[in-house]
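Recap from last week: sequence in, structure out.
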Amino acid sequence: MYFSKKILLKKTFTFLIFIFFVLSCSNKHQKKTFIEDLNSKKAESFLGKNKDSAFYYFNKVTTSTKDSLQIAQSYSSMAAIQTDEGDYFGSQESLLTSLKFLNEKKSEDFFCLSSNYNELGLNSRNLKNYKAALSYYNLALKFAEDYRMRLSILNDMAAVYRDDKHYVKALKSYHDIIASKISDQIMYARILTNMSFTKWLYNSNYNAAPELLKALNIRIKENDLWGQNSSYAHLSDYYAIKQPQSALLYALKMYNVSKNLKSPDDQREALQKLIKLSSPEETKMYFETYQKLDDSIQTARNTAKNQFALIRYDAEKNKVDNLNLQKDNSEKKYQITTQRIIILSTFLLVIAGSVIVMLWSKKRKQRIELEAKNTIRENQLKTSKKVHDVVANGLYRVMAEIENQSNLDKERVLDKLEYMYEKSRDISYEELQFTEENFHEKITELLKSFATETTKVVFVGNTIDLWENLNAQAKYEIGHILQELMVNMKKHSGAKNVVVRFEQLNNHIHIHYTDDGIGISTEKRFKNGLTNTGNRIKSIHGAITFDTIAEKGLKILISFPIC
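Predicted structure tokens:
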């Protein structure tokens, strides 16, 4: 009960150590290239000052250099920033991306490999996946060549055993570390604190005070404020039952040190201790402070997560733009070659004119037959689309509203069901009826209706100006396209986070859809409702692009002109 928050106690300290290691890796082997790279220098300058800016420039490094080690280091630094902001899943994604640029057979990559696996262990520990954490820490040890790094990893492994209540294994690990004759006093104090506190957790009658105070004195002598912060937390927990006044004193010291360190997480933990240990009057004051701080932390972290996502989305967009530019250049070269071929072919066509006329007539006849077949098929698709949109997706949206809304408007639901009933009675003769007023509000209502306690839906750029010049037909199709995407997400993806971003560029509207669900396989991409989606996009002269990667969710880009 006393150490449930210890996982986050030194998160900022771990973040700084991790940044030191990954930067050391780059500085050690690629120093000249790293210093000469402007984006890298800017990213380093923002560390500890502005995490959003540091993340932005580290992300730019990944596209501005071809050096695999430098790219891996940048993704590692981005992961450390995400971990510090509580974005553990985003951090894991960045670390796994970093590992793709490293070679386990190259000794110059060992430092970065060890740092990455160590950070993956920390993230797994924060998520209480202790088995995975131990696996990653063992991999980190495999590549760790630095003595201090190895001690830090062994300490973290022992902490995982302790968090998982395997106290005997944890104590054995701590004893092995202590027995190795640690020369670094700060590291020695850290191990001594953790070992004595674990002994007390294992045996509540154990007198841990002498060792805890010894470690505290070392940390005071070494001016190790992060270490002092940890010692005060452990001492407050240790004295909480036996000597509440002593526990209160150490909680106050922890609070003051954490404010000097500007560590919101440690301030919040110290306030929790003060609330339990203080008098009723002081408890109320501390509780109010705790509430404000907790709200501030949650707001800042949610903002940071969204910001990190937007930075990554913009970077992906730039990559796509670069690829399109390369594609345009290739197409221009192809056009020049084609023109030369046409000039040569013209001479041959004059000689074989009669044959060409005959072939043209035959192809014209085939084209007319094909157009007739396509007309029949389009009529069939229109009827199919109406059935799918009005009945299937309409019913599913009503089901979603019933499931997710606690205060249900029964009359409103009955009106929707009656509307679908009337439409389905004579659906083949139904004319398009669409009201384009307040279209942005309809889109907002549509997207919000799919948000639940387990699925977060975030959207940006849905403004009244965005849709102002779009015709009614296009708005009608876009509304059903978005509804189809959200229905498929709800039915199949298992996504916890959905981001929809709207933007207007060069007389086109772009809709970026992203979720962290299971993705969608190629063979299933154009079945049922998604087939209708493709037809709708074509009807407004637009395009849809799927970008699906295993275990990384689904990304879709929808683009269409403003008519």
